[in-house]
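Running low. Got one?
___
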Amino acid sequence: MPPAERYAPWMRLALEEAERALHAGDVPVGAVVVDAAGQVVAAGHNEREAAGDPTAHAEVLALRRAAEALGAWRLEGCTLVVTLEPCVMCAGAVSLSRVQRLVFGAWDPKAGAVGSLWDVVRDRRLPTRTEVVGGVLEDECGALLRAFFATHRGGTHEVP
C-alpha cells in the first residue's frame, strides 16, 4: 500500500487538530502519535498563542502526551504524524523520543528540519535514526497553512 494511503487516515486526524489551532488563532499544525498497534495514543496542535509558550508546537505537545499516556518517554514503535515538516526543535524532540517513524504532510522550505533545510532525525552522528515519510496529503496540509498565512501574516511564509 502506498504511504499516502497507509497514513492518510491518521493525517486526517492530524488535520482535525490543525483546524483546532486555526480556530484558536495559532498556526494550523496538528499532530497525532500512533502506537505499534495502530491506535492513536495522543494528539496535539500548536498552542503557542494560547499558552504564551514558544515551545508549544503540535509535535512537542503530542509527544509529551504520548509519553504520559504510555508511561514511558521512549516512544519506540510509535509513529508521529504531523501536518507540517518539523522545525529543528521538533525534529530534536522526535529524535530524543525515539519514535520509529515520522510522517508529515507539507514540506517547509523556510524551517523544515527533516529534509528541506536540515535532516536532523537521520543524522548519522545521532544514536537513533527515524524513518521519514513526507508529502502525505500534502495538498490539504499546505492549503490550510497557505490560507492562514495569507490572512494572518500577509502571505509571508512559503508553503508548497
